[in-house]
Amino acid sequence: MTLSDLLVPSSALFLDFDGTLVDIAPEPEAVVVPAGLVASLEALGHYLGGALALISGRPIEQIDAFLQPLCLPAAGVHGAERRSAAGRLTLVMTHPLDHVQAVAVTLAADDPRLRVEVKRGSIALHFRQAPDLETTCRDAMEAAVRESPGVTLLAGKMVFEAKPGGASKGHAIEAFMHEPPFVGRRPVFVGDDITDEVGFATVQRLQGIGVKVGEGTTVAWERIASPEHFRKQLQAAAAAKSRKADA
Ligand SMILES: O=P(O)(O)OC[C@H]1O[C@H](O[C@H]2O[C@H](CO)[C@@H](O)[C@H](O)[C@H]2O)[C@H](O)[C@@H](O)[C@@H]1O
Fold first, then answer.
1. Which value does ipTM take for this structure?
2. Which residues does the annotation mark as catalytic?
């Protein structure tokens, strides 16, 4: 089944960013937004009456910068921040991350291949350039999180990320689904990572469909081979739906 088959005017579309809309890159700032992607998102958002949101581990301001001039409804930092379709910003309560940050920074000081990303409400320790340090990073971050009340650890693609226990992509999607223009629609969520599984489970509980991009076990009912395949489907869906709207 293609994305175009899944979408009708009464659908709500939720999209992950890294590994779904854009290819994974060696560093967080090295991702490339291919030509035409912004136009496809804009056209589909229009077709869906504005019920299209980005659900990312990145801060919303980074998503805005990558997709400018588009400014979509969005959840950032794995649901720790959310901007509604009306532009209202909601922040999930965060917990002290000083200990996690100190542990991550100390590790990275010993090996320049490690990278610490400090976000509002989360600390990410990237080991993409040092895959041999995965266990060291996991052990250190797990221990640091155990000593940080209210904080949980996510294992993403070559990254361990400490974030507020009360925030998740599933919670963010559910919050959107209680508000216009998402309320009453059938949700579709497309993502690629283990961190997206809670989003797939959430939309499927709400009678919607999860779509997993790439390989790996998943609870999602549908699968697309790669971000490149997904972008092609997005473009095709945007073109087909725009044609229908014009007819
Ligand atoms: O939820 P997402 O939109 O998929 O964001 C998840 C994380 O994406 C970024 O890290 C990942 O992508 C980088 C660029 O491709 C890659 O270098 C890194 O190894 C990946 O983990 C971002 O830096 C994180 O803040 C996001 O949480």
1. 0.98
2. 16
